[in-house]
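Good morning,

Attaching, inline, the backbone tokens for the sequence recovery test we're adding to the shared suite. The designed sequence is right after.
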């Protein structure tokens, strides 16, 4: 029986990757003097803020103190927050809010499993905070995806087993985290990018509870 669904945030419930891109690109150009492309941004999907900065710093020979790195992350996040300040419920990705509503109506538990420290603010702006029974985010996890900690803690908080829980993820590291934790995983994106997912759809508008039961719990 399907008992719970755990959702990644960026790339699954909302497209904030473009705002991360704008803010990291500005930091790369103005503070570090390196280029930052859309390809670079793809590599940062699912990584923590510090891991993302370290990726950008690997493009330069300059070295920076811990204090300088903290300040750069602070500045980047301020720019990012200016951009997400404009988020509205209409910017939830297709099918996201409707699926959360139908899961709640069917008594299936829901949770967030995100690397983002800004997750509480973003789900509030999207108007979906009340539709999530638990939020496990970058403020509480100690190990980044592909470590399964974020999803295992979500399942524990919901008091469900991984085998009765489906994870929705758009990043390779997130799909790997779900599999490592013993969860079934629906990829959001392209099948060629998310080969370890059980199946892949373009967005959550393709998902119904009936489909999930048929794919994962019909035997
Ligand atoms: P923040 P997710 C992740 O969110 C993003 O995919 C990743 O690009 C970002 O660096 C990370 O959150 C940290 O975000 O700077 O807001 O703490 O996909 O795990 O929901
Ligand atoms: Mg994501």
């Amino acid at each position: 029986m399907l008992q719970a669904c755990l959702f990644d945030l960026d790339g699954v419930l909302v497209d904030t990757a473009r705002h991360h891109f704008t803010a990291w690109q500005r930091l790369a150009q103005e503070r570090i003097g390196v280029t930052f492309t859309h390809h670079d941004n793809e590599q940062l999907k699912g990584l923590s803020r510090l891991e993302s900065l370290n990726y950008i710093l690997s493009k330069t020979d300059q070295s920076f103190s811990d204090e300088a790195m903290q300040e750069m992350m602070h500045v980047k996040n301020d720019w990012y927050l200016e951009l997400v300040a404009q988020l509205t419920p209409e910017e939830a990705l297709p099918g996201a809010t409707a699926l959360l509503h139908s899961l709640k109506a069917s008594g299936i538990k829901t949770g967030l499993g995100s690397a983002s420290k800004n997750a509480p603010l973003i789900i509030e702006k999207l108007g979906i905070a009340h539709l999530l029974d638990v939020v496990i985010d970058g403020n509480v996890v100690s190990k980044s995806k592909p470590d399964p900690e974020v999803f295992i803690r979500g399942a524990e908080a919901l008091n469900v087993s991984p085998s009765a829980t489906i994870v929705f993820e758009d990043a390779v590291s997130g799909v790997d985290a779900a599999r490592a934790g013993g969860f079934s995983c629906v990829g959001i994106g392209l099948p060629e990018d998310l080969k370890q997912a059980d199946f892949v759809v373009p967005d959550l508008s393709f998902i119904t509870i009936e489909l999930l039961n048929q794919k994962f719990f019909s035997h």
